[in-house]
Design brief:
By secondary structure, the protein is α+β, with helices and mostly antiparallel strands. It is built from four helices and eight strands. Helix content is about 20%, strand content about 25%. The chain is globular, with a radius of gyration of 30 Å.
């Protein structure tokens, strides 16, 4: 019969082994110096938590993509590897409108050019982006924790709603004309019926 200390050791070892199999692996935290660099990104994009500010500053929305959300692209920032100048902002639908969840740097994949790097991360392999073309990209999920990692290419919890293909703000030309041909006869009573005859004999 095993002694009491041996039983305790075996019990702890079994519990530890079970916990390792039961808990999914988490992405490694980035080097602390990365957060210092990202502080410039927070400072430059924090105001865009209010989505209309992003549009006013030249970030144009594109349709939603599962795992990425809505990409708002600022063409003036494409090609930048400056922490304070991401080329795109990433949004998802929230209870009070679109919610900022991340940022993205975009560099066009020129012929023979190597993938750039930022924050100790090499940009993802080239993808074709609307209105940009073949480009290297690097995303940082700084406003919504990503279980796959801060710089993961996609976010498992970002989905698109059924009507996400439509812009949040439809322009006036897309609103159909309403035929409001109302028959007002009978709705407004005759004034003669409302004002009684007054006998003003003096």
């Amino acid at each position: 019969m095993a002694s009491r200390p041996l039983k305790a050791v075996l019990t702890v070892a079994a519990a530890a082994a079970f916990s390792l199999t039961a808990v999914p692996a988490q992405a490694a935290d980035p080097d602390p110096s990365v957060w210092t660099e990202l502080s410039h990104t927070y400072g430059a994009t924090g105001a865009y938590a209010y989505e209309p500010y992003a549009v006013a500053d030249g970030f144009a929305p594109t349709p939603c993509t599962p795992g990425t959300g809505y990409r708002y692209v600022n063409q003036a920032n494409v090609g930048q590897t400056d922490a304070a100048k991401p080329a795109a902002l990433l949004y998802e639908d929230g209870p009070y409108g679109r919610r900022l969840i991340g940022v993205e740097w975009v560099v066009k994949a020129e012929s023979g050019a190597a993938a750039p790097a930022m924050f100790g991360q090499t940009f993802q392999q080239p993808v074709d982006l609307p209105e940009v073309g073949s480009s290297y990209t690097l995303r940082a999920w700084i406003y919504k924790t990503n279980p796959s990692g801060l710089f993961s290419a996609t976010h498992p919890d970002v989905t698109c709603s059924a009507d996400s293909g439509a812009d949040a703000d439809a322009d006036a030309d897309s609103v159909p004309d309403l035929d409001l041909d109302l028959d007002l006869d009978g709705l407004i009573p005759d004034l003669d019926d409302l004002i009684p005859d007054l006998n003003l004999d003096v």
